Amino acid sequence: MPSPAVPRSGYRFVVLGLLCLLAMITYMDRAANGSAKSAIMAELNADLPEGSRKYNTEDFFLVLMAFQLAYAIFEVPSGWLGDTRGPRSTLLRVVIWWTAFVALTGFTGMTLPGGVYLGFAALVVIQFLFGVGEAGAFPNISKALYNWFPAADRGFAKSAIWMSARLMGGLTPLIWVVLTGWQFGGMHEPAADGTPAGLDWRQAMWLFAAAAAVWSAVFYFVFTNKPADHPKVSPEELARINAGRTGSTTAVSVPWGKLVRSRNLWGVCLMYVVTNFCWYFLMYNHPGAMKKEFPAWDATPGGRVLLALLSGAPLLVGMFGCFLGGVLSDRYIRRTGDRKWGRRRYGMIGYGLAGVCYVLAIAGKLAFPGNLWAFAVPLILMGFCNDLIMAPAWAVCQDIGGRYAATVSGAMNMFGNLVGAVTGIFVTGMILKANTIDVGLPTERVADAGYVTCFALYAVVYFAGVGLWLLIDATKPVVPDDDHTPTASG
Question: What is the pLDDT of residue 30?
C-alpha cells in the first residue's frame, strides 16, 4: 500500500529566498567593480604627479586578478568551515568581512587619518581581502541547501540561486548608471542649479556595502543550520526535507584523502575551469567594451541606458539559462532515473552552444565592424548557453559531496577560479592591453584584433569543455559510504 503524501510546508522556501538575496548581493558587490573602474582609475590619475604614467582601465585587470586569486584560494577553507561548523556562522563571518572591504573600496584615492593614502597598490590589497570574504558565499549556500532541501529538488534550488545571482549581476550596470546620475568619464553632469546628479561612485559603493550589512542582520535571526532546530519547520516539512536521506546534517570531519583521490571530483574541477576562463569577460570587460566600442551611444543619457542594459543582458538572459538547466536536469532524472546523464547532458549542450556563440561573435565583429547589435547579440546568447550548466554543475557537487557538499563545492569553485578565472583574466587583460590604442582616459579603445583573439580562444576552450563533462558521474559520491541517492526519488 503506498504511503500517504506528505503535506507541503514552506519555511524552506523562506530560507531559499534569503539565500537568493545573498547571491544577488554577492554579484552586485562584485559587478560594481566593472561599473566603477573608469571612475576609480580617473580618481587615481588625478592624484599622480605631473609627468607620471597615467593608469588606463586595462590596468584594472590587476585589481580583478587580486580578487579572483583570493576568491579561489579561500574557497576550500570556507567550505570546510561550513561543513565542520555550519553555514550559519560561516556566512555571517564572511559577509560582514567582505562588507567592510566593499566600503573601504569607496575610500580609494583618499588619505585616511594617520596619513595613509589608498592608491592603486592599496586597491589591489583591498580587492584581495574582499575576495577572501566572497569565497565563502557559494560553498556555504550549497551546504545550506543540502541541509534544507531533499535531493530531488536540489537542481531547482541551485537554479534559483544562480538565477538570482545572474539577475543582479545583469542589473548592476543599469543600477550603477541610475544611482550615479548618468555618470560619464568619471564626472557627473550637474543639474541646472549646480547640484550633482545622483550619488558619486564612492557613495554608491557605500550603499552596496550597507545592503550586505542589512542582510547579515536578517540572516542572524531567520536561519538555523538544521531544519530540525527551527521552530517554524513543521514535522511534515521536516519529513519531506529528510526524504531518502540517510546521513546526518551535523558537523562532520572532512576526509581529505578521499576527496583528493576522487577522479570524479577532479573531473568536476576541470570542467568548471572552462566557465571561469570564458565567462568573466562578461562580468569585468564587457561593460567597458560597450562604452569604448560605441562612444556615440555613450554620449547621450538614453544611449548610456541602452549600453548599460546590453552590458548586463548576458547575465539577465543567463538567469533563464540557470533556471532551465536546473529544471530540465531534475525533470530528466525524475523521468528516467538516470542521474549521471541528467546532470551531464545539459552541461555538454551548454558548453557546445556557448562555443558556437563566440564563433558568431567573431563573425559579427569581422563582417559588421562598428555595429552595436552584431557585437552585443552573440554575447547575450552566450550568457544564456553558458548558464545552462550552472545548476547541474553545482547540483553535482551536492550529489557527489553529500555531507561534504560545502567542501566539494568549494573545491570546484576554487580550482575553477584559480586555474580558470585568474588565468582567463590575466590572458584577457594582456590581450586587450596589447591591442589598446589611443591610450588616455576616456578616449582609449581596443582594436578589433583584441576582441577577435579573445573570442576565438574562448570558443576553443568551450568546445574542449564538452568533452570534460564525460569525466563526471553524479552517481558516484566522493566518499562511497556517505549519504547518496542515485535514484530520481532520492
Answer: 86
Q: What is the CA radius of gyration of the chain?
A: 23
The per-residue pLDDT for range 177-234, each reduced to its tens digit, is: 888 865 444 444 444 444 445 788 899 999 999 999 999 999 999 999 999 999 999 9
Cell numbers 510546508 correspond to 9
Whether the CB-CB separation of 399 and 267 falls below 8 Å is answered with no
The residue-averaged pLDDT of 70-85 equals: 87
Report the C-alpha gap between 125 and 309 in whole angstroms. Answer: 31
pTM: 0.75
Spatial neighbors of 462 by CB under 8 A, at least 6 apart, are 274, 278, 351, 352, 354, 355, 358, 386
**Domains of the chain, CATH where assigned:** 11-222+258-471 (1.20.1250.20)
Q: Tell me which residue has cell 591610450.
A: 439
Compute the distance between CA of residue 129 and CA of residue 134 in angstroms, rounded to an integer.
9
Look at 55-69, 187-201, 219-233, 464-478 and tell me which has the smallest mean pLDDT: 187-201
